[in-house]
Amino acid sequence: MSRYEHRAQPLLPPRQFGRRVARHGGAALAVLLVSLGGGTLGYRLTEGMSGVDPLLDAAMILTGMGPATPLRSTAGKLFAGSYALYSGVGFLVVAGLLVAPFVHRLLHRLQVDESREWGRSPPRSSPTRRTPSSLLRPPRPDAISFQLLDATPRPEAAVPNFVISRDIPGAGQLSREQLQAISQKSCEVLGDLGPRIQWVHSYVTADRIYCVYRAPDADIIREHARRGGFPANEVHEVFAMIDPITAEPARATA
């Protein structure tokens, strides 16, 4: 079963989400087949049933309908009771496997939407409070930001930020579909590496892409680039962020 993405990572692309649903459906089907096979074998051994009778009784118990054939032996009655208890647990397992991908995607979408909305509209009552997306502006007017995952400020000591420079000739001419393919590949590798590394956003210029990441060190950023087939020509740790607010004189504290 695939590992679910962290809340700070983007939503899984529809194609990958479809594969996840298919894997969960296959697992649920496997649980059903194993349970049905075990019940059929149990009725055959304890009650001496033959033909399709043990399969029918197992299916009836598994679906909560009750036995179709009267039980004669004590062993058969004990098995039927145990199998009925197991069937209740099996039902919960199958239901969980089928519903889990959709519940996770719904909760994840709410988390991503909330983070994006917060990043676009900071509280007006605190004008000096800035999000990382507002502090890191494109170096040129023709640069565009095409990905924002988690704009919620974090304590500076938690995880350092890094700026990665990627030399990609003609990057500014890439189509939306090409940028989407690059983003999907990056997110796929991020999912494999786990929540230690997070992609904040990127700026696309004429022949270069500048990316902002949160990561414990530069090594995992270079590993992400290696797995994704991306260049990582320069990797710089961010030690401070400044903006026009920085120019204001410090207020004396009482």
Model description:
It is a single chain. Helix 1 runs antiparallel to helix 3. This protein has six helices and five strands, in the order ααααββαββαβ. A hairpin with a 3-residue loop joins strand 3 and strand 4. It is of the alpha+beta class and 254 residues long. The chain is 49% helix and 11% strand. The chain has a five-stranded antiparallel sheet with strand order 1-3-4-2-5, covered by helices on one side. The protein has two domains: 105 residues, Orthogonal Bundle (Helix Hairpins); 109 residues, 2-Layer Sandwich (Alpha-Beta Plaits), CATH 3.30.70.3090.
Give the gist of this structure.
With 254 residues, the chain is of the alpha+beta class. It has helices spanning 14-47, 53-62, 74-120, 132-135, 176-193, 218-228; strands at residues 144-145, 161-167, 198-204, 208-214, 234-238. Helix 1 (14-47) runs antiparallel to helix 3.
Count of helical stretches: 6
Helix content: 40-55%
CATH topology name of the largest domain, in short, is Alpha-Beta Plaits
Extended strand count: 5
**Based on the structure given, which CATH architecture of the largest domain is correct?**
2-Layer Sandwich
Query: In total, how many domains does the architecture comprise?
Result: 2
Q: How would you write the strand order of the largest sheet?
A: 1-3-4-2-5
Backbone CA Rg: 28 Å
Structural class: alpha+beta
In terms of quaternary structure, the protein is single chain
**How many strands, which pairing sense, and closed or not: the largest β-sheet?**
5 strands, antiparallel
User: Average pLDDT value?
Assistant: 81
